[in-house]
Every structure is written in C-alpha cells, then in structure tokens.
UniProtKB/TrEMBL annotation:
It holds the Pfam family PdaC. The lineage of its organism: Bacteria, Pseudomonadati, Bacteroidota, Sphingobacteriia, Sphingobacteriales. InterPro entries: DUF3298, PdaC, PdaC/RsiV-like_sf. Gene3D superfamilies: Fervidobacterium nodosum Rt17-B1 like, Heat-shock cognate protein, ATPase. Residues 58-150 form the Deacetylase PdaC domain. This is DUF3298 domain-containing protein.
Length: 266
C-alpha cells in the first residue's frame, strides 16, 4: 500500500540532509606524498514523501550520495563528473531528479501496488591519494523495480598536475598492452582455476572467448587493479570480478609516467 507521509513523519525521516564527515589526511608521509590534497566526505540524502507499507513496516524511496570534497575548489570541479557518473549537474539535482522520477511513477494511474520502494545509494571513496594522482572508486547500488537491483563500480584515476583522467594506455609502454592483457589473463585463470587449454567462451562473455581487459582500473598501494562489473564478463548471479596485479608483475612494462605514479605511492 502506498501512502503520503504526514508532516510529522517527514520530519522523522529527515527528507533532505547534508552531513559533513571528518577530514582525511594523506596516509603516506614520504617525501613524495606530503603535498597530497586534503578532503572531507559529505553525505547528501533526499527521500520521497510517499511510503510503502509492507508487512506492517513503513519504507520510502531515497537517494543518498557520499562523496569527497577537496580543499581545492578547482579540483572538485575536475573530479565531480567521475562521481556523478550518470551526467547530473550537481549532487542536489541528482537526488531531486531520482525522487521526482519515483514520485511520478507512484502518481501514475497504472501504478496500483509497489512492494519495494526505489533507492539509489552512491558512494565515492578515495582509494589512493598521492602528490601526483588520486584514484576514486564510485560504487552505485540502486533499485527501480524488477527482480533485483543494479550494482556497479567505476574506477577513475585523476592526474593532479595535468588535471585529466588517466587511461590505462597512459601508464603502459607502447606496444605493451598485449603483454599486460596476458599478465591479467594469467591471474584471471589462476583465480578461476581454468587451465590455459580451456576456452573462455562457454562461461564468460568475452568476445570469441578471448580474454580482454577494460579501462576500469585503479592504482592502489600494492597493485594495479582491474574491475569487471556484473554482467560485463559473466552472469549477474556470479557477481563482479576483481583482478589485483602486483606492481612487481608489471614494473617492466610501465612507462616513465606509470613508474612515477607507482613511486609516488610507495
């Protein structure tokens, strides 16, 4: 059953709020990382004025986003598109648009029953913060009806000085991407316990059964990570796939810029 929230309930649910969390400082204090930029985490949340009553409990649609705010205003403008990955103009408009969509859905004459309200929870975490670059992981968990929700994570690496996103080809020597792919496939097969002689076309979604990497990668303290989201290379029920490739395995194929990025972490 769908009901309109009373004024008291709206106040109780706190329909829209912002919460600023503590400042985060660089974890690494070496000479190469003392200039890393500081940031705080902020939480913005909106809820719908419509609630769903299910088995005696009340629930409501919500949009919540947790994201870093850097001390450098210009850097915020640079990274925000990699947090608002659906192209929204601002965190406020993203929340308002999602809640408006749910409200309009509820108000449609064809909508007779809603068992579970919509939700969208976006969390952007700083994985790595050095003097040269920042690695973001933006994870989205959402439900807008159907058998199950959607979950995906986008990794973004931002060059602080050049103010641009780093592609995987930017850190690998020319003509060495094939070698990186082979290194990643070796780890993938080891993780999945698949011999080299077995094709990947039966259980995975690689084109023609040939392993391939994507550009959804990050640079962590110890590894180059490559992340495949649900549905990307295997069925939804089997979840996402994470490859963590130690820097020792790729040090010989990193170009000078890639080496500088990795050295700035150590």
């Amino acid at each position: 059953m769908i009901k309109l929230l009373s004024l008291f309930t709206i106040i109780l649910f706190s329909s829209c709020y912002n919460e600023v969390k503590k400042t985060h400082y660089p974890e690494h204090k070496s000479a190469t990382t003392v200039d890393t930029i500081q940031y705080t985490y902020n939480v913005h949340k909106n809820i719908s004025s419509y609630v769903v009553e299910n088995e005696g409990k009340l629930d409501t649609a919500y949009y919540q986003i947790t994201y870093p705010i850097f001390d450098d205003i210009n850097f915020n403008q640079l990274v925000n598109p990699y947090i608002l990955i659906d192209g929204e103009e601002s965190f406020e408009t993203a929340a308002e648009s999602f809640i408006l969509g749910y409200n309009e859905f509820v108000e449609e004459s064809s909508t007779n029953n809603i068992s579970y309200p919509w939700y969208k929870d976006v969390k952007c975490e700083i994985l790595t913060n050095t003097s040269l670059f920042v690695t973001l992981a933006t994870a989205v968990d959402e439900y807008t009806g159907g058998a199950h929700g959607n979950h995906y994570t986008i990794l973004s690496n931002i060059d602080i000085k050049n103010k641009k996103r780093i592609a995987i080809k930017d850190i690998i020597q020319d003509n060495k991407l094939d070698q990186l792919t082979k290194i990643a496939e070796t780890q993938f097969r080891e993780n999945e316990k698949i011999p080299d002689s077995i094709s990947l076309d039966k259980d995975f979604f690689f084109e023609n059964g040939i392993f391939a990497i994507n550009d959804n990668f990050g640079l962590t303290k110890t590894s180059l990570i490559i992340y495949f989201n649900e549905y990307e290379i295997r069925p939804y029920a089997e979840g996402p796939t994470l490859l963590e490739i130690p820097y020792t395995d790729v040090k010989n194929i990193l170009n000078p810029l890639g080496q500088d990025y990795v050295n700035s972490i150590m």
